[in-house]
Amino acid sequence: MTVFFKKILHNNWPLILAGGVPCFILFLIYLAQGVFPFGDSSLLTVDLGQQYVDFYTYYRNTLLGDPTSFFYSFSKAIGGDMIGLWAYYLTSPFNLILLLFPARLITLGITVLTLTKISLAGLSFGILLKKAFNGKGLYLATFSTSYALMGYTIVNQLNIMWLDGLIFLPLVILGIEKLVFEKRGLFYTVFLALMLIANYYIAYMICLFSILYFIFRLTAIQFPLKTTVKEKVIFLSKQLARFSWHSLLGGGLTSILLVPTFHALLDSKASYSDFSFEWKFAFPIQEMISKLYIGAFNFDQMPDGYPNLFIGSLALICFVSFLFSRAFPIRERLMAFLIVLFLVVSMDLKAFNIVWHGFQYPIWYPYRFSFVLCFFMILNGYRAFIKLERLSIPGMLLVVVSTTVAAFYMLKHPFDFVYHEQIILTSLFIAIVTFLLIVKPKYTLWLPFLLFLVSAVEMGINAQLDLSRLSYVSNSEFLEYRREFAPVIDHIKEKDDGFYRVEKTFLRSKNDSFQFDYPSVTHFSSTFEKEVPTLFGNLGFPVGNGFIAYSNATLATDALFGIKYYVAENNALYEKSQDDLVDPATGQTALAKNKLTELTQKNNPTNLTQLQLTIMATKPDLRSYSKLTNTDRMTTFKNQNALSIAYGVDKDILKVKELTNQPIQLQENILRALSPNEKKRYFTPIAFNSTVYQNITPNNQYPNPTFFKQIANNKATVDFQFTPQTNDAYYLTLGPSVKEEDATFYLNGKKLSQYKTYRDTLILNVANQQKDQTVTITVELKKESLWLEQFQLYHFDTTAFEKIVTNLKENELNIEKFGNTYFKGTATITDENKILMTTIPYSKGWRVSIDGKTVSTTKVLNSLLAVRITKGTHKIDISYQTPYFKIGLLISFISLILLVLTNWLFHRGKRHKHF
Fold it and tell me: Where does the sequence pass through the membrane (predicted)?
């Protein structure tokens, strides 16, 4: 066995270094930054902390607990198809590493996963160099390290699912090498398919680049002198046919995943923006030079920056040498230059850029395909290096002049992410590498080690600078939230095994429901179906492209969408007299229930004052809900009016149309459709009793007043006061023109917590159970003027609404069995001409049968699943099948047969030629 390992080490030590050195460098950086378990930091930042970590917990729960949630989950807002989310975030084969770590150590699992992927990126690049370009020794490890730790990798390591592209790209390119020069297509097909499975989004970019690379490698083919033009055309046509066929097979193999994903995309990511070509440049193209410097990155580069192009001094100098090297045919060098030029222009010209991003401009993380340019430069830099005897005098002068001109440009046009020290440091590394390339023939013994050391140090410094410019969630903060909140959710599940939704007045992320495995509404992902946030935006909630924050509910939305339990921060605003704090199911008061408090304290032995909850809603309506349990920080409430997943309603619901920026009117229309015989208003606009101005001049054009500061730098406030005449709920609307930076709102002297306003009119809950108590809403201006768009107070008739709830509960679905993809139960419909309305998002995948007969489905509110139903008691069966999954499976099966047949014919042809 020892001899066996020694042989492996002797034959493959360059590949071991290619994968091991990048991992070791990053490990040292994590160690220095105190990343858990070496400190209290973590890698959770931006989307990794707000999306992916929750999805990875869901990934574990699906594979280890409930596989049906692979297809559909009610943790995704009010419900959603999951295959698109899996294909975009979770289908990387390397994610299986996360199964080795319990949920409480998921941050450690993410660290290990990141190190593993970056290590494998270096290894796969080394394999490409070894198999296709005779790569060996320390030079192989040097260029592989440059690839694995290039600027794109470091900056995007938080987008951990994209790192698979860095692993599979060299292997796909190796497949093209085999296909072009050996006529073997199997390797290319397999790894193209694996890349498409791992992450179709980055794979799409690799597919586009593969076309360019295939054309590039055709220019390297040497034809015999007597080859005719016709023979060349025939040969190249066969190559093109072979490449196209194996590309189709690679895509066909993944159809089981990609066909239903494509259908899901049409409802989600692809539906959020209207496609159009803009023939404009995003920035002066020479500004890309700034990204060739060490540490050229800061936080502002993430939402709207330049392409990440740092590849290190050695790779950069050698690629420039490649373009001038006579060791390669001029047609090959010319094609390389044209490809680089095309890629650079693609990053700057908006029309080309949008094509590379799947015909949709990226939200944050621009120029996500820049890694293919970096790869192309590093690869051809290596090819030039191994044929470069020494850097010539003209080459040296070119490097010196280029470095000097670039440095002067950077000094004259400063960038906020490149300091003078970075310019000096980059120039120093270029000078060292240039010197080593000049003396290359004299120091062949030490040169490999010196270049390897210099490159590793340079890439390491860049990585450390880039990573130090981000802020991260501490591991203890993440764990404390989990230790505090998990027992609360577990307690709800223990007490109630039915179907219901849970919401909160606080959040760690908008995907807490995935982290803790419960149905909810709040959600954020790139694969979120557009109709759902559109509906909730129209109902008065903060929404955006791909997210909902369920922070602005009314008693009506809580009931209709089945929000049975609420978890809130401990807040005196939500307290009533102790006689009211009784669980109707048990008769116990909340104060008697101290087991949950003991459990959370046991699970969280650290200092309880460290955890700060991020409050996203102020909700006086909780005063009308039953208080069930409380811990040191959280209180659980039960909504007695929460409805089932489906209930019988009047056919008038089909007539309710979408209204934009009129959330109260839309909710009013819904409630009237649910009670067509009641001729009354549920939401009634009322005036404030008084308004007090401080340093303000108003125009008093209500409900859209504008206020102006009298003295610019002094505090300016408006106090709006009213005294509720009932214990009903009261709401305030606020138009989308008001942003967080415009004003601060206070409710009775305390800051009114509100999720950031984006694009829709919001509904704010300002009072409940506060009869004859004066309520004061204070608006403090942050700017010289403020326009309060649609600033209107409403009274909600709770008694009339509860009559609707009573009627709906008589007609609701009594769920007997349910899962992620089905509901079974009975419903008693008391009147004719009814609609069985569900709070399940409409999808072609849902099938409904009534008394064993499948019925056609329809939409209500342009988004929710519904069917027509007759009077009487009925057996209801609602089930889900992923649309086009079976078609995708069939295509994958056929593609597999064709791939086997193609491979058999290839080997059969080879044998016949041989004999």
Answer: 12-32, 70-89, 96-118, 138-155, 162-181, 187-216, 245-266, 306-324, 336-356, 362-379, 391-411, 417-438, 445-465, 884-906
